[in-house]
Amino acid sequence: MTTIQRQHFGEHQGQAVSLFTLSNANGMRLCVTDYGCIITQLWVPDRHGQAEDIVMGFDNLAAYQAGHPFFGAIAGRCANRIAGGRFKIDGQEYVLAANELPTGQHLHGGLRGFDKYVWQAQEDGDGIIFSRISADGEEGYPGSLSVRHRIGLTEDNVMTLGFEAETDRPTLVNLVNHSHYNLRGHTHLIHDQQLKIEADFITPVDETTMLPTGEIRRVAGTAFDFRHARRLGDAMRHRPAQDFDMNYVLKPGDGTLHPAASLICPHSGRVMEVHTSLPGVQFYNAFKLSNKIWHGKAGHRYQAFSGICLETQAFPDSIHHAHFGNVVLRPGEKYRSRTEHRFSTVA
């Protein structure tokens, strides 16, 4: 049975912040805080039963409060990019912060997105339910949005991520967990790990703005082809800056969960399979981390290619591309999504 422990993690703007530790009988341990719903640690056994922490992050709350590249955090109200920080719903224009300075786009909810709030937290069986009300006008988004984010750890080594939301006015919703994973352990690089993505298509971007062009392009014959497991270091050699930051169009499922991606670490034997109810997954190989000095857990310096993100999501900038799918939530509707990270080992 999964056990849950709660401890004091610090304070944020006069509010107490807690750290929850979820543990199962197989040696897995998941630590998550109610500040930004951040997954701070994820300990997973290797083929010999030796557990390592496989997510990037920090040892203390102050480091998260000082700003970071979304290590382990929730991204919202609308994750990924929105062109120019502007959109229209029913003819009404809304203006958001263009907070991604290199591109001039709105990114991951704005200057103070969902990752920078203390959430209410309640234990729920093998998980924690985090909840908050995002006020009408917060970061420029319309509508009062009621959000629930459940993070769990099962006895069969599955980390579960569930989202629900309701609104009183039409608004945008795209909620994402932004953990950086490294199956060898957070102090290593990713080059020897093997990635497979269950997608025949991507939504290519303009390399300057990082916004989707609107095209849906086949991966066959491109550097973005991960239909079969590829060693990341080999794939990165086919990109000018060894960079990957791309949304993949997942193969349609049965309306519940469908495979998104799998990551294998030959050194440790760890395997992570990602299944989701969502239509896309953003593969980012942390190529930008060396743009700034980040000292993570135990003072370890994180650099480019220290981890990868597999962010299950609606397509980026969907509000400006009707064929990408709907990201508008209306009163009377409920936003729901679920993603599972299933862990195992190979010999």
What does this entry look like structurally?
- About 5% of the residues lie in helices and about 40% in strands.
- With about 350 residues, it is mainly beta.
- It has one domain (about 5-190, about 280-345): Distorted Sandwich (Beta-galactosidase, Chain A, domain 5), CATH 2.70.98.
- A nine-stranded antiparallel sheet has the order 11-12-13-14-29-23-22-17-20. It has a five-stranded antiparallel sheet with strand order 1-2-3-4-5.
- The mean pLDDT is about 95.
Features:
single chain; 347 residues; mainly beta; Beta-galactosidase, Chain A, domain 5; nine-stranded antiparallel sheet; five-stranded antiparallel sheet; 29 strands; 3% helix
Can you describe this structure in just a few lines?
The chain is 3% helix and 41% strand. The protein has 347 residues and is mainly beta.
Write the layout of secondary structure elements.
Elements: E1 3-12, E2 15-23, E3 29-33, E4 38-45, E5 51-53, H1 61-65, E6 74-75, E7 81-82, E8 86-89, E9 92-95, E10 106-107, E11 120-124, E12 127-134, E13 145-153, E14 158-167, E15 171-172, E16 176-177, E17 194-197, E18 199-202, E19 217-218, E20 230-231, H2 232-236, E21 245-250, E22 258-264, E23 270-276, E24 280-284, E25 294-295, E26 301-302, E27 309-313, E28 328-329, E29 335-345
Active site: 178 (proton donor), 311 (proton acceptor)
Binding site for beta-D-galactose: 80-81, 245
Family: Belongs to the aldose epimerase family.
